[in-house]
Specification:
By secondary structure, this protein is mostly helical. It contains 23 helices and 4 strands. The chain has a 4-stranded mixed sheet with strand order 1-3-2-4. Helix 15 crosses helix 17 and helix 19 packs across helix 20.
């Protein structure tokens, strides 16, 4: 049978099947590309370390929530690369149509399929593949997923409301709650290295006039990071600028100092037609016109609007910012605290969680943070509110209990990655930190301390190998005390996927 006979005037009942199959492959390509990267040697190790950082942060909160009976078993976040300039978290259950490869969804059933992301995803910039310290931001993004997956938002808001913050400041802190909570998680898991990486990401290391670590040299391994920071500092988008990737959102508006979308897109898009000619539906034939049996774009949109639930309509993405708003609406207050306040909270959290004092930190980091931190008593109040006492949905356990690294001996002090571990790396030895986030944090401290030595001694590559050697042999196990029938859950997920393609609710 010819292709035309099968799709044309022949079997009308099967006219939509080829288009449904196309939609299935289009959606699966989003996931396939993430898994395929793990087969390439140049990306495999970086993504493996990133996945382990996410799992190290997610595992204990998940085990606590399962033991408390407040959640069902959940998969941890999956980390992948994206061409965005900063890390992003895409929540479980969020719509992800804008994240799909270009090409369009052709059917209403396909749109129903992309209403709910089946597991959380963390995107990191491509240059993190050559800059190991940047992977500490994965701990921050995992903090967003901890809040979302375990339903902690009401308790976080209640803790801030009871923190004794000035009445005129409380609305700001409650709006910033998600970003602050994620910073708290990253500080507990990674120690003082995290504020240094945070400061670098938000532009304080590269912005004109900003304090720089004395004697710091831009390393070759961090050159891509430095170039990204330069672009972030030298170009600022208008509030109404829109990313070519996402409808209704502005990549540039999500974090202060972001590169113009035309600058960011130039290198990756130079070899293909301009986005303006590709994305508007009116500029090309309707998708339905190409495939018999496919819905018209207007019909697909109406179906999507009618079917989308309030839960699916929630923002599905968490993005970074220093001060700017996350949406192109200039009147909307920012969702992120100013950089100085974020760093102040980080240092207050580290002190309250028992991190070694400033004297044990590398001097370049001390100098940098001293010049950037905003002195505010609210930082101590917020740290107390989020750290003290247990969370009901986590079985009454505190964030310090769940996320801060501990030695196995009862009563032993917490073993945060510190200058001792970084010094070993800079001396050509292993860091000897017992946890994967700690090894990466030690590498970040080594980079901040001596960028040239970091390069000369191949600290990034050696720390990556050390971190991967700490992985348990074999596949990642289920959370202790919870033994779900994995095959049954996978089968149920497959039936849900098939049902969505057949148009079932």
């Amino acid at each position: 049978m010819s292709a035309g006979a099968g799709v044309g005037s022949g079997a009308r009942a099967d006219a939509g099947l080829p288009v449904l199959v196309l939609d299935l492959h289009h959606v699966w390509d989003y996931f396939r590309s993430k898994f395929a990267l793990r087969r390439l040697a140049e990306y495999r190790d970086c993504l493996a370390v990133a996945d382990e950082i996410a799992w190290a942060c997610y595992r204990e909160p998940l085990a606590a929530a399962l033991a408390a009976g407040t959640v069902a078993a959940k998969e941890p976040p999956l980390v992948s690369f994206s061409r965005a300039a900063a890390p992003r978290a895409h929540r479980r259950g969020g719509q992800y149509r804008e994240l799909l490869p270009r090409g369009g969804i052709h059917t209403a059933a396909g749109l129903r399929l992309v209403r709910s992301l089946p597991f959380p995803v963390i995107d990191v910039p491509w240059y993190y593949g050559a800059h190991l310290p940047g992977l500490l931001t994965v701990a921050h993004e995992t903090g967003h997923h901890i809040e979302d997956d375990f339903g902690l938002t009401p308790e976080i808001q209640a803790r801030l409301a009871a923190a004794g913050l000035p009445g005129d400041e409380l609305p700001d802190w409650q709006r910033w709650a998600g970003e602050v909570f994620a910073d708290v998680c990253a500080c507990l898991a990674c120690g003082v290295a995290y504020p240094g990486v945070l400061a670098e990401l938000l532009g304080t290391l590269g912005s004109p006039g900003a304090a720089r670590p004395s004697g710091a040299v831009r390393s070759a391994e961090g050159a891509r990071s430095s170039e990204a920071a330069r672009l972030l500092d030298e170009t600022r988008p208008s509030e109404g600028a829109r990313s070519p990737d996402a409808a209704g959102s502005s990549e540039g508006a999500r974090f202060s100092g972001a590169a113009r979308s035309s600058d960011v897109a130039r290198s990756s898009d130079a070899a293909r037609p301009s986005e303006g000619a590709r994305s508007p539906d009116a500029a090309r034939p309707a998708e339905g016109a190409r495939f018999p049996g496919a819905a018209r774009s207007s019909d697909v949109a109406r179906s999507s609007d009618a079917a989308q639930s309030p839960e699916a309509a929630r923002p599905s993405e968490r993005a970074w910012s220093s001060e700017g708003p996350r949406s192109p609406d200039a009147a909307r207050p920012p969702d992120h605290p100013p950089t100085g306040i974020r760093l102040a909270v980080c240092l207050a959290v580290l002190e309250r969680a028992g991190h070694p004092p400033a004297a044990a930190r590398p001097k370049p980091l001390v100098d940098l943070l001293a010049g950037e931190v905003t002195d505010t008593p609210a930082a101590d109040a917020v740290a107390r509110a989020l750290l003290d006492g247990g969370y009901g949905r986590l079985g009454g356990k505190s964030l310090v209990d769940l996320l801060a690294p501990q030695r196995p001996e009862p009563g032993a002090p917490r073993e945060y990655p510190d200058q001792t571990h970084a010094g070993r790396l800079l001396a050509g030895m292993p860091s000897r930190h017992p946890r994967i986030p700690g090894v990466v944090a030690a590498a970040a401290l080594a980079f901040l301390t001596d960028p040239a030595g970091y390069d000369d001694l191949r600290v990034g590559a050696r720390a990556t190998a050390e971190a991967l050697a700490l992985r348990p042999v074999g596949p990642r196990a289920d959370v202790p005390g919870n033994a779900p029938d994995t095959a049954q859950r996978d089968a149920e997920a497959g039936h849900l996927l098939l049902g969505a393609l057949h148009g079932e609710a």
